[in-house]
Amino acid sequence: MYPRRLIGLAAVLAICVAGYMTLGAQGSWGFVLPFRGAKLAALLLVALAVPTSTVLFQTITQNRILTPSIMGFDALYVLILTALIFVLGGQEYVRLPVIGQFVLNVGLLMGAALVLFGTLLSQARQDIMRMILTGIIFGVLFRAVTGFLQRMIDPNEYAVVQVNSYARFGRIETDLLLIAAVLAGIALAFAWRMRHRLDVLELGHDTATNLGETPQRATLQVLVIVAALVSVSTALVGPIVFLGLLVVSLAHQVTPAARHAVLLPCAVLICAITLIGGQTVLERVLALSTPLSVVIDLLGGAVFLGLLLKGMSR
Amino acid sequence: MIKVSHVTHRIGGATILSDVSVELAAGGVTALIGPNGAGKSTLLSLIARLIPLQSGSITVDDLTIGACPSDVLARKLAILPQSADAAPRLTVRDLVSFGRYPYHKGRGTEEDAQIVAQTLHRFGLNDLAGRQLDTLSGGQRQRAQVAMIHAQSTDYVLLDEPLNNLDIAASRSLMRMLRALGRTVVIVLHDINYASSYADQIVAMKDGRIHAVGTPADVVTEDLLADVFGTRATVHQIDGRPLVQV
Ligand SMILES: Nc1ncnc2c1ncn2[C@@H]1O[C@H](COP(=O)(O)OP(=O)(O)OP(=O)(O)O)[C@@H](O)[C@H]1O
Ligand SMILES: [Mg+2]
């Protein structure tokens, strides 16, 4: 299915990567390449994590409007981080090894996701409007509690939180790269192993059950994978609400009705092109200071509204 | 044999099934009849583990529903629900291919491809194989769904009102095919005449209970129609099969 389109996307991505690495370089290549290489690696990790978590979530909830970010997963990650700093104190938290901080966050997010979303998603028949409302309420709630805790935190410690609360493609936490890559690798391996099951689960609760799948168990497995992938992307570049929706909607246009074995790589390639190409054009070519996340959320928000209106008129 | 023992099912405060016990013999066609809301779909969904069992027990041969792994049951029993989930962009061939999933779990073999091809041929779907489901008529889509169930090659086949949307030729050919399969078929029918013409056994349900079980000649009587459906209709005997004058 669609081998040409995937190859075409890969070619475009290669051009974007070359542009990102070489355009506007000042100083010695020996310095520029490793410096940019680390950022590139982080962007690629995000490009693997965000679309994969979005596709898994949409398949399991059988909709193309909701995504983990829209349901408040990213906001929950930031809330957990803030709460940890609030409880432990910024100094204590920072004294933990980076790996320890990250693993703690990820573990808590997985637990919270299972508790909060597990029951909501495990019902056989889901009401999409109720889910959207729940997601919006969760998002607002998580952000409100985060804001509240941040105000209570010592201003010195606040800086630790702030870094993780906003989307930023320019300043990327590269010290997390290794642990994030390991976690993403594991989560992606599980996601890829699920690809045939996802094709069946997409047929709906009854048909999937008839074919021997267990939608409820699959939902919990997907929630754990999604929590891991959201942690990776949020830790690296912060929350970007509409990125997943944007790139997965595009992937459905490029490879319509594709199996997951094709849809997943397609969405990843599109996301990588969006992030790396977008960053190259904004930063290097146009020299604009508009953050890429603003552009992405603007476009993604428009797609969200479009899908919502289309869904309602049906 | 499908053995349902003392199954009670409640949703909210309402009792949908009350203490249902029934045995559906292996082989042959069993028709499930009863008025709207009698609990036919609920019973079928419970047998096929689409909804979890609350009390009582159900076994299919040596498999116990709720205890046996879902994928093992998927090679023993297949169900076509009353309102089958829509997968609008799937092609007919892809849909039918999914019937083989319980065996290959994603990587179809040559044998699976052959079974799919035979099934498409048998259901007269060769011309439609490349079409997406949302471009088909209701009856064509129904035929594709039944074909998928057929490709699943299970000993037991449960069908919830499969004749919906089918014209008389398609209905008769489906019922004949089901008889010819030699599998155990449990089928919900609203048209009593189809039940009495094609079924070996009829189970009549009303208000969440089994009202009568027996051969068409035993079950399809004027008294039973009055009891179960609350309507007075004349029943004729033609070639030993009862036929309802509608
Ligand atoms: N999810 C549910 N929530 C509440 N009530 C339900 C639910 N599912 C079924 N019921 C009720 O259970 C009863 C039996 O439903 P069921 O679908 O089994 O009937 P049926 O015999 O298949 O009817 P029909 O011939 O109309 O398909 C009905 O009164 C229905 O309203
Ligand atoms: Mg029904």
TrEMBL record, chain A:
Source taxon at top rank: Bacteria
One Pfam family this sequence matches: FecCD
Keywords, alphabetical: Cell membrane, Membrane, Transmembrane, Transmembrane helix, Transport
GO molecular function: transmembrane transporter activity
GO CC term (a single one): plasma membrane
Family: Belongs to the binding-protein-dependent transport system permease family. FecCD subfamily.
Protein's name according to its UniProt entry: Iron complex transport system permease protein
Organism: Litoreibacter albidus
TrEMBL record, chain B:
An example Gene Ontology biological process: iron ion transport
Location (main, coarse): membrane
GO cellular component, one term: plasma membrane
Membrane topology: Peripheral membrane protein
Family label: Belongs to the ABC transporter superfamily.
InterPro entries: AAA+_ATPase (IPR003593), ABC_transporter-like_ATP-bd (IPR003439), P-loop_NTPase (IPR027417), Siderophore_ABC-ATPase (IPR051535)
Subcellular localization, as worded in the UniProt entry: Cell membrane
SMART domains, A to Z: AAA
Domain ABC transporter as annotated: residue spans: 2-232
UniProt source species: Litoreibacter albidus
Protein name stated in the entry: Iron complex transport system ATP-binding protein
Entry GO MF terms: ATP binding; ATP hydrolysis activity
Lineage: Bacteria, Pseudomonadati, Pseudomonadota, Alphaproteobacteria, Rhodobacterales
UniProt keyword ATP-binding, yes or no: yes
Span of the signal peptide: none
Keywords: ATP-binding, Cell membrane, Ion transport, Iron, Iron transport, Membrane, Nucleotide-binding, Transport
